[in-house]
Design brief:
The chain is α/β, with parallel strands linked by helices and 403 residues long. The protein has 17 helices and 14 strands. Helix 3 packs antiparallel against helix 5, helix 6 runs parallel beside helix 7 and helix 11 packs across helix 16. It is globular.
Length: 403
Amino acid sequence: MPGVGTRMATTSARPSARLLDLTRLVRRVGQLPTGIDRVERAYLEALLGEQEPLWALIRSSLGYVLLDRQGCAGLLERVRSGQWGARDRLSRMTRGVEEPRGQAESDLRRICVARCLPIRLGRMLARYLPAGTAYLNVGHSSVSDRVITAVRRIPGSRIAVMVHDTIPLDLPRMQRPRSVTRFAAFFNRVIHRGDLVICPSETTRQAVLRHAAPVVPQVVVAPLGVTQTKPGVALRGPWDGAPFFVTVGTIEPRKNHALLLDIWPEIPKAHLLICGHRGWRNDAVFATLDARPERVHELSGLDDATVSALIRDACGFLFPSIAEGYGLPPLEAAAQGGPVIVADLAVYDEVLGAAGTRLDPHDPAEWRAAIMALATAKAPHRARIAFHPPDWPSHFKTVLTLT
């Protein structure tokens, strides 16, 4: 199979059951979903439609919780609706757990088949899960030595983990210091103790193999599906009636908002809408935003439908990020058919194909010229592109043959 490494033999045998880690999905209840959050939810939705028994493991603030298929369906229903029950007594007594996570963990205790303290995790999994269970973790959460050791107590178990990118190892200066250490430990466990590494792109696969050397892990490339959100009501603002551009993502150094802020005073009349919350190690950019530059608007906390509407109505979508393992926002924007300008990265040759314009993320003049061309173009003559993004059925057809 293309993109698969050689450390372990591949298998097409169906597992006796699947155990999906949903720690991240529960931990981030009530927050706007990130790309990784969407992936974990997509796995839950897809695996509920498979014939094999489905279980879910969640690391809560009070230990581990195990859900069966019915519990998984109940969790998905609550995630979709945003409706959670009241906090139970244990949740009210636990410090540092705020709503709605406290409500979510309370509901998990109500619908679970079992729960345990960390020290008893292996015993719990061995009691409920059959031999030949496949454990999947796609959220980068809870891939600990304890979890791996517990799963290994199940005879014939297999462990598959998605590595979305290796950016913390590639660009440590742009990360929170502790996140680099955590990611390095996570990566080491996956490479040395896992059975399969799932990568969203060939770019990520090559990075995984480079950092894993001399170990050659089994790796499969499965592009993530792009779910097109139906645009909501257009958000009104000072940009009404004027050309405007949208960029989406956490305001962190890697996303390269500094380039756009530097050139924006030289782009007359056009507005820049920055959709995303503030991240880390970006004091100069934060200071610029705090000064409220003319025609630049920092918009955080918007839901997917609102962002989708802004992208639909914009003159173009801008994404000058200097490193990506996949980069969902440009694919979601390209799927709407409008102009997309991205950094000239190998991953976009791979996942965007002929769609979008690629520019040097370190060349302000290139970006200024391209943006001005779109800002002054007549709306009827805007370039519309035919882009068919990767879909989830294709992703799971690849992944589930190996897990």
